[in-house]
């Protein structure tokens, strides 16, 4: 039996996924000219990934959003070398990208304990600066949260993403017949009989033009970046966002979603993907599913169905196409199996690539020419033993 738990990211009031902070390194300490004393360096400011931390907690705990390193100690007769100023740590959740105001990436926090230096303390006064200290770096930075999940649900509004996660988790999120029901990210966790856990991020629905920041735009798309794989969800009968917008078939929805991701970042569109064809309980669903599968086999032949500027450069190839009904539960168990299989296959490929890379880094063994069959046999055994021992040593070190 597969157990599902659902974690709502909006646990502490309104969900916060971006925070702007002022950081300044501490000033250096004064030098002592008559004795050649050197002042202490100012304290640095670091952003550090902490467990169970949220941007909302940072915002509430530090309302001024100012972090300043300690000042370096002055040089004195008793202590010619001034003490270094105290470093300051800004706690942050895992999954943060630290950027400057103009969008330049300073660093990423992908695991607990990761650290990024954001403001260096000033240098203490010394002979080289006429014993005058320097000020610490001062700047504004942004902490930008990008969810880290195994899979990200990708779909247009009302495709049934929240209903799908409900079917998986037996939870009761906001689900309605109008388009926008998911306005903040949520994560569902799937636990398999062998205790393997897989996380699925349910994200706000895209609209056409999301890559230009329409609708939830970049607020949604940035969260897709750190998911390992994508779970496309489309309505088998197609959808129409509003009375003034064109109707889109399931095939058109798939291609438009691909194009939106491609226009945002091509590497996002190249992630492994599974296609979930939802609402199979509707009339004529089987016929529409057969039509969709035929179109996906030769998408170029049906490109005339799409606006010219919304045809993807590369058509998405799905590892699995899974018909489901989130309402009746049809196909849900099969979908769970496909998700597990796809992620396991990807993990195996990555492990193989890492092993191959380590083998290529091993130094080549210079073989001595062997003059007889017995010598050649001994050489093969010797060289194999050397390679194995070096590989084991390399793997142990890393």
TrEMBL record:
It holds the Pfam family GTP1_OBG. The keyword Ion transport does not apply. Residues 13-148 form the Obg domain. PROSITE patterns: G_OBG, OBG. Residues 149-344 form the OBG-type G domain. Coiled coil: none annotated. The lineage of its organism: Eukaryota, Metazoa, Chordata, Craniata, Vertebrata. SUPFAM superfamilies: Obg GTP-binding protein N-terminal domain, P-loop containing nucleoside triphosphate hydrolases. CDD domains: Obg (cd01898). GO terms for biological process: ribosome biogenesis. Keywords: GTP-binding, Nucleotide-binding, Ribosome biogenesis. It comes from Oryzias sinensis. This is GTP-binding protein 10.
């Amino acid at each position: 039996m597969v157990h599902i738990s659902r974690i709502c990211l909006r646990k502490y009031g309104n969900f916060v996924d971006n925070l702007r902070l002022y950081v300044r390194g501490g000033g250096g300490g004064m030098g002592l000219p008559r004795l050649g004393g050197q002042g202490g360096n100012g304290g640095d400011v670091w952003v550090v990934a902490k467990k169970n931390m949220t941007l909302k907690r940072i915002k509430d705990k530090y309302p001024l959003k100012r972090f300043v390193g300690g000042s370096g100690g002055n040089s004195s007769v008793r202590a010619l070398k001034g003490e270094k100023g105290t470093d300051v740590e800004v706690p942050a959740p895992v999954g943060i990208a630290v950027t400057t105001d103009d969008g330049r990436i300073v660093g990423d926090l992908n695991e607990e304990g990761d650290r990024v230096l954001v403001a260096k303390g000033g240098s203490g006064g010394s002979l080289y600066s006429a014993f005058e200290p320097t000020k610490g770096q001062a700047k504004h930075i942004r902490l930008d949260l990008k969810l880290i999940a195994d899979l990200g649900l990708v779909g247009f509004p009302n495709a049934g993403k929240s209903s799908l996660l409900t079917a998986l988790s037996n939870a009761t999120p906001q689900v309605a017949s109008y388009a926008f029901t998911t306005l903040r990210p949520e994560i569902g966790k799937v636990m398999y009989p062998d205790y393997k856990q897989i996380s699925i991020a349910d994200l706000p629905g895209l609209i056409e033009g999301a890559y230009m920041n329409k609708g939830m735009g970049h607020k949604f798309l940035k969260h897709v970046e750190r998911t390992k794989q994508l779970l496309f969800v489309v309505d088998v009968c197609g959808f129409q966002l509003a009375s003034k917008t064109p109707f889109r078939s399931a095939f058109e929805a798939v291609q438009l979603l691909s194009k939106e991701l491609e226009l945002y970042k091509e590497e996002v569109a190249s992630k492994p993907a599974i296609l979930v064809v939802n609402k199979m309980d509707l009339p004529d669903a089987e016929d529409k599913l057969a039509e969709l599968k035929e179109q996906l086999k030769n998408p170029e032949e049906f490109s005339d169905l799409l606006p010219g500027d919304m045809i993807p450069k590369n058509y998405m190839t799905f590892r699995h196409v899974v018909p489901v009904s989130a309402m009746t539960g049809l196909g849900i168990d099969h979908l769970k199996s496909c998700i597990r299989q796809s992620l396991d296959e990807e993990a195996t490929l990555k492990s193989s690539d890492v092993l191959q890379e380590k083998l290529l880094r091993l130094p080549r063994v210079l073989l001595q020419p062997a003059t007889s069959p017995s010598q050649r046999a001994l050489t093969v055994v010797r060289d194999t033993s050397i390679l194995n021992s070096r590989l084991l040593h390399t793997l142990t070190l890393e």
